UniProtKB/TrEMBL annotation:
InterPro entries to which the protein is assigned, alphabetical: DUF72 (IPR002763), UPF0759_sf (IPR036520)
UniProt name for this protein: DUF72 domain-containing protein
Lineage per the UniProt record: Bacteria, Pseudomonadati, Bacteroidota, Flavobacteriia, Flavobacteriales
Organism: Lentiprolixibacter aurantiacus
Pfam family for this entry, one: DUF72
Amino acid sequence: MKFGKVEHPELIDFTLPPDHSGTTVLLEHLKPQDPLIIHVGAAKWSRQALKNFYPKGTREELVYYASQFNSIELNATFYRIFPSEQYDTWYRSVPDNFRFFPKVVQNVSHLRRLNDMAYPVLENFLLATAGFQDKLGTLFLQMHPNFSPKNWDRVVRFVEYWPKEFPLALEFRHSDWYKDVKVSGELFHLLAAHRVANILTDTPGRRDMLHMRLTNDEAFIRFVAANHSCDYDRIDDWVARIRLWHKQGLRKVNFFVHQQMTSDDPLLASYLIDKLNKGLGLHLHVPKTLAKSK
């Protein structure tokens, strides 16, 4: 993901901001749960996207990927609605504990921009997505960067319309959603009232999206690597924050790593999982990689 990419990441202050006051209040009303339900994955499973990940001779990429990770941020569903047979194939390719986190198709978010014409498309998308059955994780809707608060009424209608049997997370990219306290407050209240997750996007060039505002008992984190040594410190900070949130009652974490791989880069997601295991006493499988660890 190139969104928020910068030329000189060493000049960025990557310190995680303090929790939003609304997050503090929300966590105070949650009861500590053990164990933590956590899913970690990449954004794509293709051989091209994950260099030095697949052993020589691997034919079924998803089958191998799902033997190493317990989830995937499924961006393929953003581009089109697949036939039911494809969902069945994906479903049968992964183990019982694996979860798919599909992105809502762009006809809803980018082309029709939540207008009246978006709803028939949404119905078809959800009907197809139901093919994931018990292996369906949280769906996420990512709005176009120029979708601003002037479209507030569309957001309200969409959130109120969304069928509750499908867990949902939202990501807004227009800066006006966050720089005005009144606007962001109304947005966060709407999401919290409908138990919709507010996505935390940690990307180098858009630190305003790292608002640290949770709106339900699920932290949905999209981490964009800077392809710099600072990425490891950034992940260390996230592990510390997740550990704190879990102690305060957070029940679920979905953490997806977007990384521009080169031939010698180890997977940051593997580093993250290892740190989570050590920091929270978990027993997640640490994915193997053919690249040397850093």
